[in-house]
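Predict structure. Chain length: 444.
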Amino acid sequence: MSDPQQPKKLHIKTYGCQMNVYDSERMAEAMGAEGYVLTEDATEADMVLLNTCHIREKASEKLYSDLGRLKPLKLDRPDLKIGVAGCVAQAEGAEILRRMPLVDMVVGPQSYHRLPAMARAAEAGEKTVDTEFPAEDKFDHLPDRPSASTRPSAFLTVQEGCDKFCAFCVVPYTRGSEVSRPVDRILTEARKLIGKGVREITLLGQNVNAYHGTRDGADWGFARLVRELARIDGLARIRYTTSHPNDMEDDLIAAHGDEPKLMPYLHLPVQSGSDRILKAMNRKHGAQDYLRLIDRIRAARPDILLSGDFIVGFPGETDADFDATMDLIRAVGYGMAYSFKYSARPGTPAADRPPVPADVADARLQTLQALITRQQRAAQEAMVGREVGVLFEKPGRQPGQWVGKSDHLHAVHVTRPDLTPGTLARVRITESGPNSLAGVLLEN
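Prediction complete.
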């Protein structure tokens, strides 16, 4: 049993996406108000939270495997409290308690503001499940962000949920319909982060560019929100993810061209280059629609680096469909991309469709990833000799080395021992490695 004179310790394992990273931070803050402090060591924790993601393959299996590894710890310390949060918690609910009696709490992504009350119930010996979509805004019930920041970059959720209902995606069922936070609450949180040393904010949402908030009774689109954030003194950089092509409106494209704080990087998933497969996915856009959109974005910001998502082996995908995807990738020229072999998500429209043979999907994925790797390396090599802005975040692995992110989201390292977190400086790139750039700091 923990010493009552010492703070209780909380260990959080975060799976998957950037929104889960943000959610884990907010859960830690909520539990911090209850006297918990974070620990990296699960063996010394009084509470372990597994913040799950349902996007990746075999998400449920990974959760139950991790819970199995916690079982000896729970047997040794019965007072240890174990919670499951996030999208797998939302999808499976009380089934988690049935399969794993060692779990004390199951809480969905829209209900984690209730976590302190659930923890108190667990300490009283009760098991609780909360996978509702509550009417109240969870952000209204979370504590203020902590008084000090240790990082120059931060995430800020502005929108949650999805109304697109892509045939492969579980998000509408686990995160709910699209909801946008009010403008003033976003601006208030941003100012607090900046006051604590944050210089770069990444705006988050399942469909972040579908944001439609309100201020003084007026509707605000995403571009207007970005421009208002850019007016805040001390904020040097703005990024956002993840976007849907159908929500990439004219004013947001224009902002990429004329708002210097909006970084020249855009993650814009397309998933496939085949119109037939895009229709089967319920994406509601075609390959040529996407390519015309890319042309408009590049006309506004010629140096923008593009990233995307691709699913190979979607049910019904033929060799011709896959070739169309490869043609689209060649036409766009991505600086980086994420690619996955299709795996069915229970409850989604595509889940029961006949799968592409595993060996065929595996071969296609390898072919696609090889092309993406070549494009990524070409984009990095094109940076050699250029001057770029770099926001330095932490010491590197080598003595005197510091690592940061370039405007285009490349990892950049320099040898300069006198830097500090949050330094924003110009760097001349001298070398391109497999996954990062090296350079020399330019004197002001």
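Summary: The chain is about 35% helix and 25% strand.
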